Structure formats: structure tokens, C-alpha cells
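Residues and backbone
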Amino acid sequence: MRAFREAVEAVDMDAVEALLAEDVVFSSPVVFKPYTGKAITAAVLRAVSEVFQDFRYERELAGADGRDHALVFTARVGDRELTGCDFIRVNEDGLIAELMVMVRPLSGAQALAAEMGARFDEIVKAADSPPAQSVST
């Protein structure tokens, strides 16, 4: 999905969030149970954007129906290099309905789990906070 890729590469997390369906299902590489909902998924993705260093997409694959996409990436977490893939399924409105991330090797996944675990309370708090409201005068 070109728009998602470009937003992630630009570290434009507002644009990433705008591409998520309200009921998006996010499957993390380090948590057994998927997260459901735009707010928690956006909060997790914002945290990941801070954890991953030297992140870059290497290639993009698309399914024949245009709804399924795979974005292969490389990144670093601390001194651990990893390779991963974002598996994306879009809904009929073109929004991301499912996002599953997989990473390897195990040492990279463990480093990611440790860094994300350290931010877990912050992630949950961000997901529970109402969106910023603009004030008109």
C-alpha cells in the first residue's frame, strides 16, 4: 500500500493514523492477542516509529485483488538488526482493516519486545486520551 509506505517512510504518523479503519485489527510480533481499534493501533505504531532505527522498506508486494499487501522492511533496535514484514489488508473503503507485523530473528523480536514493553503504559495512555481538539475563536 503506497500511501502507508510513504507515510511511514516520512515518519508522518498522523497520515498513518488517517489510513487506519476505526475497527482495524493489529497483530503484533511480540504480543499473542491482537489489538483492535484505531486508537490503540495508532499509539503502538507511534511508539514503534521511535523504537525502530535505520528503518527502511526493501520491497512491496500486492495481491491480485488489490486488497492485500506485504511490505518487507529492515530496521535496528539498539544493536539488534531485524528484518520484518507488514502484512496489510484494506477494506472496501481503502482503509487498513488488518495489519500484521512479523519480525526475525528472535533476538531482534526480543529487543523489540523489551523496548515496547518499557513503553507499554505510555502507549495505553496515548490510546485512551481523546484526540486533540482545535479551538476556534
Remarks:
- Confidence is low (pLDDT under 50) at residues 131-137.
- Helices lie at 2-9, 13-18, 38-51, 106-118, 120-128.
